[in-house]
TrEMBL record:
Gene3D superfamilies: 1.25.40.420. Pfam families: BACK (PF07707). Residues 13-71 form the BACK domain. The lineage of its organism: Eukaryota, Fungi, Fungi incertae sedis, Mucoromycota, Glomeromycotina. It comes from Rhizophagus irregularis (strain DAOM 181602 / DAOM 197198 / MUCL 43194) (Arbuscular mycorrhizal fungus). This is BACK domain-containing protein. InterPro entries: BACK.
């Protein structure tokens, strides 16, 4: 119910009910068997309405669990990660990491639970956190405060001969189920994985390159 409610903005009353439910008992959602299948939007709402009912380190552990589940090829042991693994997890959790209240961790929790994943933490935030845990008098800057990072879609992020920046912004709104006139709240990075003029138009080539790739959009230009 939670997942479906947040997938469709038309279920406003259902979303309101779900939000009230998780604000009272967020641990039930975090500990549910299908927690890793909830959409990103629902996870963000869950974190924002936690109200300190479970510790921040527990929130972080569940966020990692969710992020790893979105990338089945990644193991749960960060010591075995390649740079590609770290980058994949970093991209998956890009909108969520800024919501974590890392400054509420103990030094031991930060060392054991966060530092092994330092490559997925934005550099400036990571440096600021390390300083704050090494020096009790250090005052973290605003980058250590929970916030949502919005990644602007820029023309040089769109490697396409078919769509433009404006198209990318429109597709981003469709993904978030926003209207055309609504303000764009979350932007997405569009990474080209197949181009017909470069890779060919055969079904075999399409499946060879695109199979088992999550969060993809297929765009085809049709002749008039």
């Amino acid at each position: 119910m939670k997942q479906n409610g947040f997938k469709n903005d038309s279920f406003l009353e259902l979303q309101k009910f779900c939000t009230e439910l998780i604000s009272k008992q967020p641990e039930k959602i975090f500990n549910s068997s299908d927690f890793t299948s909830i959409p990103e939007k629902a996870l963000i709402s869950l974190i924002q309405h936690n109200g300190n009912q479970i510790s921040e380190v527990q929130v972080w552990e569940h966020v990692l669990k969710w992020g790893i589940a979105q990338n089945p090829e990644i193991s749960s042991d960060p010591s075995s990660y390649s740079n590609d693994d770290f980058n994949a997890l970093k991209n998956t959790l890009r909108q969520i990491i800024p919501l974590i209240k890392f400054t509420e961790f103990t030094s031991k929790e930060f060392l054991n639970k966060v530092y092994p994943y330092k490559k997925i933490i934005p550099d400036e935030l990571n440096e600021d956190l390390v300083k704050s845990f090494l020096d009790n008098d250090y005052k973290p800057n605003k980058k250590s405060e929970p916030q949502i990072i919005k990644k602007e879609v820029k023309p040089n992020n769109i490697d396409s001969k078919i769509i433009t920046r404006q198209h990318a912004e429109l597709i981003s709104k469709w993904i978030d189920r926003l209207g055309i006139a609504d303000e764009l709240k979350n932007s997405y990075e569009f990474k080209l994985i197949l181009r017909g003029s470069r890779d060919g138009f055969t079904p075999e080539k399409f499946h060879e390159i695109c199979d088992n790739k999550s969060h993809t959009i297929t765009i085809i230009k049709v002749k008039d």
